[in-house]
Every structure is written in structure tokens, then in C-alpha cells.
Amino acid sequence: MADHNDFGKIAEDLAADYLQKNGYRILLRNFRFQKAEIDIIAEKDGLIIIVEVKARSTDAFLLPQEAVTRTKIKSIVSAANHYLEELNSDKEVRFDIISVLPDEQRNLTIDHIIDAFQAFDAN
């Protein structure tokens, strides 16, 4: 497996741990629908939380959350809709982004962007 894939897995594990420590219940990880993937599906306060995890080894060119493009949002929303239909759930959904970056000491830091985008941002 390539180093960037290892880093992505580490970032997703870190994000899942962070969410659990902050009262989220992890429902699923790496949910796939067609070509789309949702990194983490969690639940908190009666909401379904769809989490996109973005990691970079540096923010020199682009912050991790800036890599969540309109096309990516569209694919996440499509997968989320499919997941909710499978569950036959009418719970409210929130879309978050967790970005993971190393700090100056090379420790990984988390930035949790709550309600990062809306489903209508996909249009």
C-alpha cells in the first residue's frame, strides 16, 4: 500500500477516535455507493453525521478541507441519500469535514468543521 494510503487510514482512525471521544457513535466506516465513499457515518444528538476526512502532509498548497470540491460534495450527498434510503431513515443529516495536518512538531492535529456544507451545495 502506498504511503499516502497509509496516512489516509491513520487520519481516518484518528478522526473516528476523536469523534468517539466527543460523544459521537460511529455507525459505519468507508460506506460505498457506486463510485462514492463516505469515510465515517456517525450519530449524535439524534442527527446522522456524514464525515469526510481529508489529510495532507502539508498545507503548503491547499488546506485539506479545500480539496472537498463540488463534485466530491455531490458524490457524498448521493451516497448519503442511498444510505438513508437503505435504513428507511428520516433523521436529519449534517455534513462535517475533519481535516488532519501535522503541526510544526509533526504531531497530527484535527480540525473538525461542523456543518461544513449542505446537500444543496451539491447542485
Can you tell me the number of structural domains? 1
**Biggest sheet record:** 5 strands, mixed
Arrangement of strands in the largest sheet = 1-2-3-4-5
Structural category is alpha+beta
Shape from CA axes?
Answer: globular
Following the backbone from N to C, one meets helices and strands in this order, namely HEEEHEE
Distance between the termini: 35 Å
Low-confidence region ranges = none
Q: What would CATH call the architecture?
A: 3-Layer(aba) Sandwich
By DSSP (H or I, 4+ residues per run), the number of helices equals: 2
Radius of gyration: 14 Å
Helix content class: 25-40%
CATH class: Alpha Beta
Number of strands: 5
Protein name: UPF0102 protein FOB44_14325
Family: Belongs to the UPF0102 family.
InterPro entries: Restrct_endonuc-II-like, tRNA_endonuc-like_dom_sf, UPF0102_YraN-like
Question: What does this protein look like?
Answer:
This protein has 123 residues and is an alpha+beta fold. The chain has one domain (3-122): Trna Endonuclease, Chain: A, domain 1. It is 30% helix and 38% strand. The chain contains 2 helices and 5 strands, in the order αβββαββ. It has a 5-stranded mixed β-sheet with strand order 1-2-3-4-5. It is globular. This is UPF0102 protein FOB44_14325. Belongs to the UPF0102 family. It holds the Pfam family UPF0102.
